[in-house]
Every structure is written in structure tokens, then in C-alpha cells.
Amino acid sequence: MEFYLTALLQGFSFSALALGIFISMKIFNIPDITTDGSYTLGAVVTAVMITHHQPAYLILPAVIVAGGLAGALTGIIHTKLKINALLAGILVMTALYSVNLTLMGTSNLPLNNFPTLFNLVQISADPNHNTFWVVSAFVIVLIALIGYLLKTDFGIAMRATGNSESMIRSLGVNTDRMKITGLALANALTAVSGYLISQYQGFTDISMGIGIVIVGLGSVIIAETLINWFRITSVWLSLILVLTGAVIFRLVLSLTLDLGVDANLLQLVTAGFVLLIVSLPRLRLRTR
Amino acid sequence: MKQFTYLIVILITVFIVSCSSGKKDLPVIGFVDYEKDASLEPAKNGFIDALKANGFEDGKNIKISYRNAQGSIPTLTQIVNFFVSKKVDLMATCTTLSSITAAQKTKTIPIFMMVSPTVKLMNMENAAGKGPANLFGVVEDLNYIDTSFSNILKFLKPKAGKLFVGMIYNQSEPQSVDAKKRIQADADKLNITLIALPLNSSADAQLVTQSLLSKNIDAFFANPDNSVFASFETIYKSCDQKNVPIFTSEAGLVQRGAVAAFGADIYQWGYQAGEQAAQFLKTHSTAGLQPEMVKLRKRVYNPALAKKYNINVPANFEPVK
């Protein structure tokens, strides 16, 4: 079962990304493509600061600020220059590739022989168990913060912006500012995922963000399916389901790997399993 | 009919649990491959053939468990973790990222690398200049690239005083960027003008190649990295139309349309790593093992293309099979 624990840890580390996509989906009803770049940005800032022996308490804030800036930039391009949200995300993601490469100075930075978040605190002797405790605490705090934020007036206004922009504007809310802040928040979360994953896998690679938006999207859609299935209205439960979605997404892949299907069929079988999960609510035995 | 859906959930759970209780009696080799690629395929075959030549056959006295990440880093991490948790006897890693990921995840299971650069080039050395103690296999530094590049002068005479050579390199691969720096230094020494353009995904290959060809280059140097491997046919097609010969440092690319190469043979690379793994399986100890340099380098040329470009090939080059 040790192997499934690693899938769980990866799922936990990806949950910040899933929460980011969840928020951007709430605001725009489309996923934010900046994700691919800001995820790597978070990992790059982490690796550069760790290899330059920066203290741990500085790294996380720096990652959050970097991700937030990337998201805010997408928001500004979308709202002020009236560029389609998808394109704005693609543009920032493309530009971030060069930013990431310049920051790192190389395309791959291993983090071995450096202290990381997961060996700062020694709760258990087994590194995997230790990682589990650290990342669990991290995710609990994260979900508590985001849950609280989404329940404030600001959070409600932000969520409502996605539902009916004209209504929110008529209530005197500056929707442009809402979108910029929301995207900054979403991408700060995404960067946090990069921060966790890079320390967990032990290196940062320039291409690690390519297609990562799909991972977040998959998690969110699994979560949305469960939310609709159980008719959930609570914000807390929704967030926990997003976390569950991220874990399920990784678990399905590990299951496929464990089964040892032919390498060519890996993605197909994984997709098949995910399809099975999201179509569960629709599967009904027709009985008369 | 909620029961039905619950039943399915229960069945899947049972399925997962029942699958993960594998028995282990034969020594297990976990083979970690990063992507599907025609040029990289021979490494795995060479590795397996070397084991066979030493009396280790899959299913008979060893079990080879092969996993391919298909170019996804999270999947790669999961594959490595899968092998670590299965406590395989040794891991074989093909290409740089697989080797780096495996070295990060285990300090005890011996890792036999292939198609990977030296530990130093992977930035994996500690302050004392030592790499992880469980890293073995066969690696390559960049010296051979100098030879491959300077060979161009043996084949071609510049049209106008100076030889113009174009190349593309991948910014997302450390060894590709290092190779580009080296080739730039060589070009300066050899009085060759090098025009190098970066490429970040194989989708841009055609555009970047065309851009180089528009600058009237005499030859194209294909620096063997993942994006060149993936898009070589596009590069070849564009160069062929403009009658620009391609030189490289990888024999597999000569089969696919380059004129000549001096460098590692991917099959032999895997074979050499397989011989090391076989020694470990025989003795059950890593004593005396360490990462070795690629031993066998080949000078090969493509007869059909040499004829097309009227190139006199030096006698120490052999035609590619």
C-alpha cells in the first residue's frame, strides 16, 4: 500500500492547484491556462531559493507573491485590454516559460542535499510518512483559509461574478477588480502546488507545467460530479471534494500503473477509469 | 438503484486491494522509461539483450517490469515510487529525467542509468563532488560532440570562405544547452559561423528549421536531444529540399536521414548498462561498480545521402545498417 500512499501525497500536493482551478472556474466558467506557467513558476522560485540557502519562512510567501503576480497579469490583460480570458492565460503562460528559464538559469535543478519543507520537521522516521503529516497539515490549513475566504462578503461576490456578472455589477461591485484578485488568488494557489511538488519529487524541471492544467481540471470535474450527485451546497464540503478529486485522479493513475497495462494503453485505461467514476451517477439499472 | 452504484464502488475497491498483493520470488528489474521514442527504443532492447547474453531472461529467472511515463513528469514520479514501494532489486532508467527522478527517490535500490549524462552534468554532485552512492550504469559527457562537430570540416568545403552551420537546441534540457555552449566554443576555434536557434517544443521544429535554412547555411548539425529526436523527420524534409546535409552525433539519426555521425550508439549504450546490471544480479553486490562512460562509439555514414551530396567519406566511417 506504500505506493498508493505516494499517489495520495501527490494528490494532496496537487490539491492547491485543483483549488486554484476551482476558483478560476467559479469566476470565468472556463479554466485559466496561466496555470501551466504559474505552477512551474512556483516550483522555480522554490528551487532557486532553496539552492541559494534562503530560510524556509521566506520561500512560501515568495512563491505566493510570484504566482499572484502572474495571475493578476492575466486578469489585467483580460479586463483592461479586453482580451479573451483563454488567450490572456495562454499569453501569460507562454511568456512565463522564458521568465522561468531565466530565473533558473538551467532547465533542471535537483534539490538533493538541500533541506526541504518535508525534512524540516521530523514527525516520523519514514520519509514518506513524514511527508504525509507535513503535507496533510499544510492542506488542512490551506482549505481552512480558502473556505473562510469564500464565505466572506468578498468571497461570495467573487463566486457570484461567475454566475451573473451584470447582477453583481449592478450591486456596485467592481467586477474587473474581482476578476484580477480572483485570478491572482487562483494562480498563487497553483504556485503553491508547484512549491509542494518540486520539494516532493526532489527537482524542478522547466517542462513540468506542460499540460498540468488538465490535472487540475480533471480533479475539479470529478469534484463537481460528486457535488452534483450528492447535491452539496456547503463550501467546506465542496473544497474537501476538490481535494478528494485530486487524490482520486492520482490514485486512478497508480492503479493503472499497478495493473501493468501495456505502456501504450496507459492513458487510455486511465481515461477509462476516470470516465467510470464520473459516470457513476448516471449508471442506473433500468428496472420496471 | 443506489445499491448498484455502491456495488461498483465496492468492486473497484476490492479490485485495487487484490491487485496490490503481488508475490515476489524472482529478482525484479524496474525499467523506467520517460517517453515513447523511436530512437530511444534500442536502449531498452540492448539492456534486455545484454541480460539475456548473461543468462538472465525475463520470466525465467528474472522479471522485467517496464513502465513508460509518456513524457509526463508526475507520472514519472509515480512510476519511480511504484518500483520503490515494490522493493524491486534494481532500477533501469532511460534518459536524464528518469535517472534524476529515481536518484531523488531512493538511496538504496541500485539504479542503472542509460542515455543519461554524467552525474556532474545532471547537477547531482554534492559539495565533495560525489554523486549518489546507488547510481550506476552508463553515462556520457560532451566530449564526443566536439569530435562530431569538427568532423563536418572533413566532409564539407565552405562555399564562401567560412562554413555556416545551423543548429537547434532545446532550452528545456540541460545537456542540450550545455552542448550548444560547447559547440559554440568549437565553432569559434574552427573558424565556423554557428547559427543556433532555441526550440522548446517539437511543434516549432519546422518553423525554426526553415528560419535557419533561410540564412543560407552549408550544413545542419542535429544536436541529439528529445525535441530533435521527436521532430527529426521534419528537419530532414526541410533540409533535403534545400540540399543542406545534416550531421549529428547519434547513429540512430543517420538511419533517419543524417549524412554522418560520430557518437554513441543507443543500442550499445543500453547493452553496456545491461552488462553492469547482469554483474550485479550475479554477485548481488555493487562492489566495484560505478557509472561508466560509453565505451563503444561509432563512426557511421549514410551511403545514399553521401552520394547525393558528393561527399567523400573518410575510410574509418562505416555505412549505417
TrEMBL record, chain A:
Compartments, record wording: Cell membrane
GO cellular component terms, A-Z: plasma membrane
MF (Gene Ontology): transmembrane transporter activity
Record membrane topology: Multi-pass membrane protein
UniProtKB keywords: Cell membrane, Membrane, Transmembrane, Transmembrane helix
Domain of life: Bacteria
Chief location: membrane
Transmembrane segments: 56-78, 85-111, 131-150, 180-200, 206-227, 234-253, 265-283
Leader sequence residues: none
The keyword Phosphoprotein belongs to this UniProt entry's keyword annotation: no
InterPro entries tied to this protein: ABC_transp_permease
Protein name: ABC transporter permease
Species per Swiss-Prot/TrEMBL record: Mucilaginibacter xinganensis
Automatic annotation (TrEMBL), chain B:
CDD domains: PBP1_ABC_unchar_transporter
Superkingdom of origin organism: Bacteria
SUPFAM superfamilies xref list: Periplasmic binding protein-like I
InterPro entries: ABC_transpt-TYRBP-like, Peripla_BP_I
Protein name: ABC transporter substrate-binding protein
Annotated source species: Mucilaginibacter xinganensis
